UniProtKB/TrEMBL annotation, chain A:
Transmembrane segments: 29-50, 62-79, 124-146
Listed name of the protein: Stage V sporulation protein AC
A Pfam family assignment: SpoVAC_SpoVAEB
Keyword Transmembrane annotated: yes
Organism of provenance: Amphibacillus marinus
UniProt KW keywords: Membrane, Transmembrane, Transmembrane helix
TrEMBL record, chain B:
Organism: Amphibacillus marinus
One Pfam family from the record: SpoVAC_SpoVAEB
InterPro entries: Spore_V_AE, SpoVA
Keyword Transmembrane helix on entry: yes
Identification of the protein by name: Stage V sporulation protein AE
Keywords for this protein: Membrane, Transmembrane, Transmembrane helix
Transmembrane segments: 6-24, 54-76, 83-112
Amino acid sequence: MLQIKKDDYQNLVSAHDQKRPILKNCLKAFFVGGFICVIGQGISFFYMYVFDFTEETVGDPTVATLIFITMLLTGFGVYDKIAQFSGAGTAVPVTGFGNAVISAAMEHRTEGFVQGVGANMFKLAGSVILFGVFSAFIVALIKTALMEFGVIG
Amino acid sequence: MVFLWAFIVGGIICVIGQLIMDIFKKTPGFTLSLLVVLGAILDGFGLYEPLVDFAGAGATVPITSFGNALVHGALLEAEKSGMIGVITGMFEVTSSGISAAIIFGMIGALLFKPKG
């Protein structure tokens, strides 16, 4: 009987694994990600000049607007094509978070609104919220405790 | 000038994400979670706010700002009402990203049929 050991399997996998074009991927991620941030900056300036947002508060409406644009692009099936090309360039900006929520919601619509859309909306993005909230809790707790005991100012 | 820095800083954060995905062979979900934690830690040391001042949307658009905003809300509320503020204030600053994702997710599910 042919026995395949774990090491053999690993060797087999790495022999057939495609070499990732890391430099090319990084360049794509850099330009697409940078471009999305430039669009975000444009939206920020729009909110700052047209409405009375300050530099500190303008992040919120900017993020909401970017997620709205993401909804349209996801709905028309364009987002997936851009994401395929740019990798982390579209995943890392907040549009990637929006896309994860929106595409999951759309994809599971056929299973109904409660069992499908409601239950699956945060299937992909849930871990981002979990680890974000939990790490923020730990960080804020430590910092507040240090401030209360007068260790830092 | 702000546009240039937004482009460069935003691009670099995306390259960090791409490197985590390519070199350590992690899924996008893992990468995003890690970046959010990084953003939270950076804000804990008070380093994220200067980055936002410097790069504008280059720092607020990447997902790292989500972690930063969570810590920020928690600390603001903790200043007012003590330890319990860490929990009650957490979503104070960051609510727009999550509420926008939920609202537009629902609208998207109502409007569009999935493609492919």
